[in-house]
Amino acid sequence: MHKKLAVSLISVAMLGCLGTGVYAGSNLKEIKAYLNTGMKFKVDGQPVQLTNSSGAVITPITYDNNTYLPVRAVSNLLGVNVNFDGKTNTIELGEQTEGVSIAKGFDSGYHTKDPNMTVYNGEDYKDVFFDNGSGARGSSFMLYPEGKYQKLYIQVAAIGEDLKEFTIQDSDTDTVLKQQDVRVEDGLVTIEANIAGVKSLYVRGDAQRGGSVFIPLTTSYYK
User: Fold this and answer.
1) Among 43, 52, 135, 220, who pairs with 154 as Cys (CB 3.0-4.6 Å)?
2) Are 85 and 118 in the same domain?
3) How far apart are CA 120 and CA 156, in angstroms?
4) Is it the case that residue 10 has pLDDT exceeding 80?
5) Does pTM surpass 0.70?
């Protein structure tokens, strides 16, 4: 339902609220339009208000018998990520074409590039999170997508003992976005989570005594 509505609304959305970079250049044409203060909105039957990034209510514009809505406000309501590429003057909705590795800016005491720790099943991943601590423990780290991406694809392997309740969570709202056990016999698995609009993530799993957690950062990415 959300995706179908997103297509119909965003297709007529104006390019406002993405930043002043949108207005640069000579491709703009002045028009006469009207603020439509009488327009109301519902999503899945529930009344909603369109707001900007500061929380201020936004009024739609009517021009030539069409209603134009700010693309970012609509995308936030429907959980569809929006990003503006200033270099190409392009608005990107949903998943980006190219994945962005989570390695950039990654910070953890278990972050390593030591060749003795970055190899799994004969392949060297160069840059990994490798928790080989002792005893039963919570194995965790933070990620900061800053609301720029639609999905997170993270690879993880349990070594020695199964990894229980591997969880990807919105750290600002404490909302669990994905949770599953990772078994040793599964090998290196890819876990997908919808992170549209999420600024920071808390990633955690329950590592067992004698078990290690292996996450290649080079092949885990945002889209």
Assistant:
1) 220
2) no
3) 11
4) no
5) no
